[in-house]
Amino acid sequence: MQDTDRQGRPVIVVTGIGLVTSLGQGVEANWAALTAGKSGIARISRFSVANMKTAIAGTVDFVPVEEMSAPALSERLAELVVEEALGTANLGVGGAFPGPLFLALPPVELEWPQRRALAEASQAGDTLAYADLLRAAGANDNRAVYRRFLFASVGENLAARFGTRGSPIATSTACASGGTAIQLGVEAIRRGEAEAALVVGTDASVNPESLIRFSLLSALSTRNDDPTKASRPFSKDREGFIMAEGAGALVLESAAHAKARGATILGVVEGCGEAADGFHRTRSSPDGKPIVACMRNALADAGLVPEDIGYINAHGTSTPENDKMEWVGVQAVFGERASSIPISSNKSMIGHTLTAAGAIEAIFTVLSLNRGVLPPTINYDTPDPALPIDCVPNVARAAQVSHAISNSFGFGGQNVCVVIGAPT
Amino acid sequence: MHDRDAIVTGIGLISCLGEGVDAHWDALNAFSPKIDDTAFPGFPVHPMTALALDKHISKREQRQMEPWQRFGTYAAGAALEAAGVKGNAELLAQMHMIVAAGGGERDYATDEAILTGLPKAADPAAYLNEHLLSDLRPTLFLAQLSNLLAGNISLVHGVVGSSRTFMGEESSGTDAIRIACARIGAGQGDMFLVGGSYNAQRPDGPLQYEMGRALWKKPFAGVWARQEQGGGLILGSVGCFLTIESRAHAAARGATGLARIAAVATDRCGRRPGDATANACRQIAALGTSFAQASTAAISGASGVAAPTQEEQTFLRDLGLPVRAGATALGHSLEPSFIANIALAAIAISRGKLFAPLEPAEAPMDAPLKDVLVTSWGHWRGEALAHVTAA
């Protein structure tokens, strides 16, 4: 492997990975379940789903946290995957990681249990107003709640724990956030600011209000009776995504640095591309132009042409709109080859891990190339004639692939594509 | 002079002091505090000036937004206009955007109604679900998501080269500026729109910082004067966006630079006494001899919160530069606070002099101004320093 690419920039490799999803904890448990076509989607048990239209999700219920909240569990999941990734990489263990932290994090906001606690403490009369909460906020010591619900707290705590360098950057580009975090890491190493970067995507925001907000946008599947069959990307009868939790961590490193210390190279981040969509807050441009642009930008950044790509890890959310538009984009970029390139969606099994999806799915893409197995798209029983694709239906497939792309598209029109290469 | 210098070519700034570069310059030189102490009695905030929103946001789009997004989208439009690129679809398609964001407003009436009903409900969890489902506006989510300020700017102004949102209070703004300048320096982009907004006139703003015991709840006093009485921050509504581009890019399109961001550094620490000072000293040392004491001023991002403000005050005193605390005039605006202070620095640099002291602790500066050091010590975490100089 060369130290620099055709543009003279450092080649960037993946030397450490860590995963936790509804399928389990750790890279091996996840990979085994994913390639066996198992689903992590289940009926929600964390909170009451009374009156909910959607009662299923891919929650991570096996990781305990004190004082449960989205940032608390997001932080804990991030800790677990970072520990695993540092162990794989054998770099920066012991709280001294030699590079910056880029964190894809869900937006943080005071949640109902904390809001209710303030309301109770206010001892307001018959009607409760924000003025009562404000009064209660200062009457007792709520500093721990305040810190928990600062946007900076997860990144700060991770940076302090793992000893990353400089100011930690927490990013949100909605469902493309994980891809954005990878891109920030790649750019930092290319600029020569560091030889390594720690990239984390984490999301544990399955709570009543988040679920309802997505539900009100008619974005979620309501197939509550058969949770494991609910996520069905590219199927004719797909009808929404499944909210899910999880985290993924990648240790990115310059190839020169990795080789010098004798690290095992798991994969190569060959390029990244992004493009924003100015069409609509939740829908893609009908012509798919930004989706096309982000894939083309990524290929150009990697110095590759469409013919070089042998696998597409799809955004594939299982919404009618996303899967159709992703196909429009793939067709535009790959032309006649579009129908013969394997395109599978991890979300058929782990659901949509939202902020974390770009990182988790990039890791699965690294594993797909590294181990020569393409994970399936499960629940593909009713093909959509409008999407004539090879989605690796239902069963994993052995395949040696040199270059793949992983797509992430977010509400708000933020699209990211990451090009992953096999270790050579 | 270098082709890849980071040049500020457009400023969009709105706050309690008014709208635009001239309004801010005039207000800063004849400073009187603009405070709203009626919205949240006992919790003063700096309110946003009255805006003619139609100038930069259509009525139809305004209806999709709450104030936080309106402030930001408006300021972004003003920055693009000032840079002479508003509506230039070809250029905007290549423009990269980095937004520093918190979250959007909630439906406060719904929150209050639910909190009123919950204690009486037979099944509180079912009650919560039922009312969230029936009472929340479906589109409100899109006014709340952190990345949707950027989404709105893409939609309204057509900035679609790329879009990234950073979160994390003050540090989101400092890192937004740092990454934009670093990418320009390294050739990872030629033109950026960087900014953010904060709405102080929403009840969950004071609520969060009151939980943190961070608020100043007495009659108005400047950031430094507050320190004799325990300190505290006054939140301020601010929208600020900058267009920052490489010198070569600005020159090629005939744009005038207001100032150059010669350096920007960001870091964190656990805030034991002296930690933040150590970070700031390293950041100053890295600037070397690039500025001359006699023609340099500091614009501080001090929030007013006691421990970091007092430590920074000592650090600034040791530097021996004339100091202005932006938050005294604008209020503390968290995400955009550093960006707004960079804007104030750029305005001062472009006029060759520092604005008048905002309170007695600040010394006047009569000498010509050539360099400004802009600090941001977050009220909880994050230390940043920018060096702003002539374009």
Count of domain modules of chain B: 1
C-alpha Rg of chain A (nearest Å)? 21 Å
Query: How is the biggest beta sheet of chain A arranged?
Result: 11 strands, mixed
- Rounded average pLDDT of chain B: 97
Our count of domains of chain A comes out at 2
Low-confidence stretches of chain B: none
CATH architecture designation of the largest domain in chain A = 3-Layer(aba) Sandwich
Range of helix content of chain B? 25-40%
**Over all CA atoms, what is the radius of gyration of chain B?**
21 Å
Describe it for me?
The complex is a heterodimer of chains A (424) and B (391). Chain A has helices at residues 27-35, 70-89, 112-122, 130-139, 143-148, 153-162, 177-190, 208-216, 255-260, 289-302, 320-334, 347-350, 357-371; strands at 12-21, 24-25, 42-43, 56-57, 101-104, 169-171, 196-203, 246-254, 267-276, 311-313, 343-344, 373-374, 397-398, 403-410, 414-421. With 424 residues, chain A is an alpha/beta fold. In chain A, the strands form three sheets. In chain A, strands 1, 2, 5, 6, 7, 8, 9, 10, 11, 14 and 15 form an eleven-stranded mixed sheet that branches. In chain A, strands 3-4 form a two-stranded antiparallel sheet. In chain A, α2 (70-89) packs parallel to α6, α3 crosses α4 (130-139) and α7 crosses α13. Chain B has helices at residues 21-29, 59-62, 67-82, 89-92, 108-117, 124-135, 140-144, 148-157, 170-186, 204-211, 247-252, 275-287, 306-319, 326-330, 337-351; strands at 6-15, 18-19, 96-100, 162-167, 191-198, 238-246, 259-267, 296-300, 323-325, 371-377, 383-389. In chain B, β10 and β11 form a beta hairpin. In chain B, α3 (67-82) crosses α8 (148-157) and α12 (275-287) packs parallel to α13. The termini of chain B are close together. Chains A and B meet through α3, α4, α5, α6 and β6 of A and α5, α6, α7, α8 and β4 of B. β6 of chain A pairs antiparallel with β4 (162-167) of chain B, so a sheet runs across the interface.
